[in-house]
Design brief:
binds zinc ion
Length: about 110
């Protein structure tokens, strides 16, 4: 298919951020070199209807990657702790040493 100046073709417009009608404004060896958006008249090289990866897309991909790693970490942290096994026995109390009356006598050291 041969293009001619002024032909209307679809291409991705960076300004409109979508596929729009473009007019061919420059040809290189029978191939479309430059087009002009018919919506906003922005002139740019022919993108072959391919949207270039924008910074927003790159950032979104980065955020997605971060979100994935965060959710993984969160899953590890939010793992519910196993409650202490309930044995049904009252907690063992440390037997308080009852003072032995025999030993309670204060010994007066001989001087
Ligand atoms: Zn446009």
């Amino acid at each position: 298919m041969e293009f001619r100046l002024g032909d209307v073709i679809d291409d991705y417009c960076i300004k409109c951020r979508r596929l729009t009608n473009h007019s061919v404004v420059s040809l290189m060896e029978g191939q479309v070199a430059k087009v002009r958006c018919r919506s906003c008249y922005h002139e740019h090289t022919y993108l072959h209807e391919q949207a270039p990866p924008s910074r927003k897309d790159l950032k979104k991909a980065e955020m997605l990657a971060n979100a994935n790693s965060e959710s993984t970490a969160e899953a590890l942290v939010s793992d519910p702790q196993q409650p202490a096994a309930d044995t049904g026995n009252p907690p063992e109390l440390e037997p308080s040493p009852s003072p032995d009356p025999k030993n309670s006598r204060t010994r007066v050291p001989k001087v």
